[in-house]
Amino acid sequence: MIKRVWNILHIGEKRTFVKVVVSIFFTALLDFASLASLMPLLYFLLEGVDEVKAILGFSMIAFVLVSLKSLVSIKLGKYQAAYTMSLYKRLSSSLFSNYYNNGFLFIKVHGYSSLGHSVNYMCYTFSQGIIFPFMRILADMLLILLVTVALLVYEWKTVLVLYLSFMPLMIAYLFFVRDKLKLYAKEDFNAKKMQARIVSDAFRGYQDVEINNSFGFLLNSFNEGLDTISCNRLKMDTLQRVPLFISEFAIILGFLIMLLIGGGNTSIILGVFAIAAFRLIPALRGIMSGYNSMHNSLPCLDVLEEGLGSGKVLERRSEPLFFTREIEVSNLVFNYGSSPIDLGSFTIRKGEYVGFKGYSGIGKTTLFNLILGFLVPTKGEIRIDGIRLTSANRDSWLKNVGYVPQDPYIFEGTVAQNIALGNEPVSSQKVEQMLRKVKLWDWAVSLPDGINTRLGEGGSSLSGGQKQRISIARALYKGATILLLDEATSSVDVATEREINNMLGELKSLNNDLTILSIAHRESTLAYCSRVINLEECNGM
Hints:
The protein is an alpha/beta fold. The protein has 19 helices and 9 strands. The strands form 2 sheets. A 5-stranded parallel beta sheet has the order 6-7-8-3-9. A hairpin with a 2-residue loop joins strand 4 (379-384) and strand 5. Helix 3 packs antiparallel against helix 10 (266-296), helix 9 (215-261) packs antiparallel against helix 10 and helix 15 (428-437) crosses helix 17 (464-477).
């Protein structure tokens, strides 16, 4: 486990971890010093020494050491906690980027909820369920080592009795729970992953679920997952409570052994044993608890290793690619893994308004994802002005493109932010121009905060037609010269569809170089196109 964790860390994080270990060692020294400061007071108490000045002096030393230890430990603890959170932030950001850069097909295959669960929950589990307990274990081990060495010098019988009473129980416990913890952790991870998917599916498909009265089915599946999680949690909590009973039993057993052995000043030996047990038993118990926590969090290592170190990541070079003449599709075939989708050959000239039709499942949306560069053709190629579209020049190509799907992407930001979509700083003047072009300006100024009004999650306050127009305004804002409309008007009524198509016609008349590609089932939408390609024929046009 340590080797796997070490491989996940960056060089800088490994160097910082060394500093963290030093801080842990220093904290252990302070813990040892504060513990040692109690020994003279114990001697005075058990021997009945009546030296008021000495007692007050040693009491003051103990008070100062404990206070210093507490203040420094708080500061160092904050430094150590900051390190674990920095790991969480870096890993979460890196995993998010890696998943995203693995491309559209990777995201589609693995699912949004599953990837989101890994990005957020697994990275946090790594920092708080593995790294943090490991640091606690290290601190406890250092303290145990220091106290053990000191006691071996001062009273070796105390150390012998302490370890004889506790270590066999501890080793037996760890041996017994190891495999069980791995099993429970894996079942817990799979159940939580399934829970996230069920919730995401239920909310995303609310209309279908409600219409088909399917929520009861989903709720039953969700409750089954809750039963699995609860059952595993109870089992793990039971195993984690055992160390407390072991430590209490070990202390009683230790006192019994000390009384039976006898010899020497029994009161002093018992006092030393009590102080040692007071600090060492919790440390040994902390090691067992940390061990449990790390084993409970083991599944996150598999997720991080796979997510950070595997998968074909898209090249992020930016070779120039300009669109001035035509898009040429040649013998295009794509295979999702079942039957191949043959999309044929055709050419689209700059400034055309081209429609695509064909039966559902023929590959219209797949064609658009290929033209966008989100998918790589199994056979054939796409050329822009004679240059083959590849991952190396895709970013340059996408600067020319605006994409309007059936359900446009609207995030929980303002109208202006949704139109600019990451193009900072946002130009209010330019936003106004785009809104006027898509016939939404009057609507925007009627909002409580105008273009600075927040739209809610997924654009919950918008109609279907408004979402489409904002998506088109977004494409125009970035200066797109080609629009891809993927069933853009299929979810709106006929009147709204007519308004959007008329608006697109006006945009086209104002800019002859604007190229529009439209997937549509309605003949009324295809009627606005200058040319229609029937994918069922799978031949060039």
